[in-house]
Amino acid sequence: MLLEIPEVLSKQQVADMRAALLQAEWVDGRVTAGHQSAQAKKNRQLPEDSEVARECGNIILQALPRSGLFMSAALPQRVFPPLFNRYEGGEHFHNHVDNAIRRLPTGGQIRTDLSCTLFLSEPDEYDGGELLIDDTYGAHKVKLPAGSLVLYPSTSLHRVTPVTRGSRISSFFWLQSLVRDDGQRTLLFDLDMSINRLRQELGEHEAIVAQTGVYHNLLRRWSEP
Fold it and tell me: Residue 158: beta bridge partners?
């Protein structure tokens, strides 16, 4: 499932974050790339131990649970601390698939079920820089307003086209979901959205209570500790 989630951050949060990020020290983006990705990657990013990255990342982590759409679609179990990248002057990221396992800065590791890109530049601030994500139906072009996020399976082949004008700044991170299988997560998400729509129309109808029970029983069957 590929899902665009609007307004994860407010415009003021984006503006404050941009101001801090533009004063930070950026390094070669290949520092966090695996062997395959390092051959395809040309951009800059903040070091993982950057204080600015940590502070901005915490703002994002606090914002995610406030998005019901994100929580329903992702069913997050563990979230990798957000990282930040910057593309300009023709920088790009060719076709790649994200690493299956990421080591957490605090120790331990995370299985990357879902990948997230949170846009921090407005679409009219730069040319190019589209995130292209492949699935069964072809390539999907994503270029969202600042503060909005795209969520997609980490198994997807994807790329960022060259930025030919301006600067594209974004945050990116991965999460391990309670439900590993993308098809099962999609079914749960569709069911949850259907329940919410019916509840708005009918209130707490008996049929909605029954559907909610089905949702939780499927989640109980499919979730992993």
Answer: 96, 133
pTM of the model: 0.92
Say how many CA atoms lie within 13 Å of 118 toward its Cβ: 26
pLDDT in tens, 72-128: 999 999 999 999 999 999 999 999 999 999 999 889 999 999 999 999 999 999 999
- CB-CB contact of 147 with 7 (8 Å): yes
Q: Any bridge partners for residue 116, and if so which?
A: 151, 173
CA 215, 220, 222, 225 dihedral sign is positive
CA distance 128 to 90: 9
Per the model's pLDDT, the better-predicted residue between 106 and 148 turns out to be: 148
Tell me the residue ranges of DSSP E strands in 97-216: 101-103, 109-111, 114-119, 126-128, 131-135, 138-142, 149-153, 158-160, 163-177
Long-range CB contact pairs, 137-146, < 8 A, 24+: 140/2, 142/2, 142/4, 142/117, 143/119, 144/4, 144/6, 144/119, 145/6, 145/119, 146/9, 146/11, 146/14, 146/18, 146/119, 146/120, 146/121, 146/122
* Cβ contact 87:77 at 8 Å: no
φ, ψ at 50 (rounded to 5°): -65, 135
Q: Say which residues have a Cβ less than 8 Å from residue 223's Cβ, sequence separation at least 6.
A: 75, 178, 179
The residue count for the chain: 225
To the nearest 5 percent, what fractions of the chain are helix, strand and coil? 40, 30, 30
pLDDT of amino acid 33: 55
The tokens describing 75, both together, are: 């069913």
